Amino acid sequence: MNNLERIVITGIGLTAPNGNNLQEYRNALLTGKSGISPYEIRYFGKTLAGICNFDNTKYQKKKDVRRGTRAGSIGIYCANEALADCGINWADTDTSRVGVYVGITEHGNVETENEIYNIKQFDYDCSTWSHFHNPRTVANNPAGEITLNLRITGPHYCIGAACAAGNASVIQGVQQLQLGEIDFAFAGGVSESIHTFGIFAAFAAENALAANDEPARASRPFDKNRNGIVISEGGCIFTLERLSDAKRRNAKIYGEILGYGMNSDASDFVLPNPDRQMQCMQKALKKANLEPEQIDLISTHATATPSGDIQEIAGIRQVLGQSKKTYINNTKCLIGHAMGAVGALELAGNLPSFEDGIIHPTYNCDDLDPECEIDNLLIGKPKEGANVRYILNNSFGMVGINSVVIVGKYA
Questions:
Q1: At what angle do helices 141-150 and 70-86 cross, to 10 degrees?
Q2: pLDDT tens track for 357-377
Q3: Measuring CA to CA, which residue among 236, 354, 379, 357 is closest to residue 302?
Q4: Number of Cβ within a 10 Å radius of residue 287
Q5: Which of 177, 276, 302, 305 makes the best surface tag, with the fewest CB within 10 Å?
Q6: Could you count the other beta carbons within 10 Å of the beta carbon of residue 85?
């Protein structure tokens, strides 16, 4: 990124439906362990979802869990795990120079639905409405809960970028570090979406909610018989630092953020625009000073909707041109769609490829849709012995927001 400070990832904390740390999660992605299970939520009834099972009292007292939100607990768990992973001396860190940037798809729906359900039991007497409702539902809540937990006095806010938010928050962290506004960043995404019946009802109304007698096979990106999204919760927070600072303390480096892009479709509320997605990828490549054929792995956003998968592959085809060496995979096949968290989770699951040379495949694609066919789309079996130097991570969201992050292997 020209002469700007180089920014690296030094810590990863996550919870996914199939793992509560990077090692568990990575093993699940390589062995095909799904985190999708049967789920039932009031009003909507029985469905499928990706449910996390992290210990929410590992870094919080029970009273703080009750007072706060599920999204806040996810963020606190992930931030503390990332902090422990990065090895920084937190006691000597000036927390006024620490920024917290958390991607979200939406926030407050869970708490509002719960409060309305509760006051219904009292004939809608609003005096029974929780006095915690306002701090629970403000848009900055998940990031704010992290600052309260870790006593961070630097800036915090949430990045509302639909399902592009995980990438968008990483981009924000990079920019703030390069501007010199902060010296250390927590950046990633969280989602508590499975705790609101409204999101299930809405996707069902759009005929975009996955159904399958075998929960583990419900999320089927690129498969001819795919029938929609599996909604999941989850979170992933990275610690970001300037390379000079990371080297000074001899930190472990997962990868260097080389480029990024964000743009808007400006064409439809829901339907993706492959031309705008292509332009977003090209923008990230230009910023990273890379040619398409230099990308070793593209992590796709594909959510297993009939049109979305086709449109993304069309955009990737335009970007790659004649390149025959770029591998392509997908993560939602095993974890479902964790909305604001998923971009960060997908990136985290692929970062170990820099070291072990293994790329996890797309699962549940038994009958590839001809319109999704593309060279080197990995299906069913990991690719071993790969020389992975550059990863391009796609994340796209509703109302036409696109984000791409390119991470390189640090040598």
A1: 50
A2: 999 999 999 999 999 999 999
A3: 379
A4: 16
A5: 276
A6: 20
If DSSP codes are grouped into helix, strand and coil, which group holds residue 341?
Answer: helix
Q: pTM score, two decimals?
A: 0.97
Q: How far is CA 191 from the centre of its chain?
A: 9
> Helix 109-120 to helix 197-205 angle, to the nearest 10 degrees?
110
CB 252 within 8 A of CB 233: no
pLDDT in tens, 116-168: 999 999 999 999 999 999 999 999 999 999 999 999 999 999 999 999 999 99
Contact 60, 74 (CB under 8 A): no
Note the residue count of the chain: 411
Domain 7-248 matches domain 259-408 at the CATH topology level: yes
Name residues whose C-beta falls within 8 Å of residue 239's C-beta, 6 or more positions apart in sequence. Answer: 9, 10, 11, 12, 82, 83, 85, 86, 88, 184, 185, 186
Rounded to whole angstroms, how far apart are CA atoms 353 and 16? 19
Question: Among all residues, which ones are annotated catalytic?
Answer: 163, 301, 337
Q: Where are the domains of the chain?
A: 7-248, 259-408
Task: For residue 336, give both structure tokens.
Answer: 């479902």
User: pLDDT at position 2, please?
Assistant: 58
* Ramachandran angles phi, psi of 191, nearest 5°: -150, 130
CA distance 21 to 15: 6
CB 304 within 8 A of CB 210: yes
CATH of the structural domain 259-408, one choice from 3.40.47.10, 3.40.30.10, 3.30.360.10, 3.50.50.60:
3.40.47.10
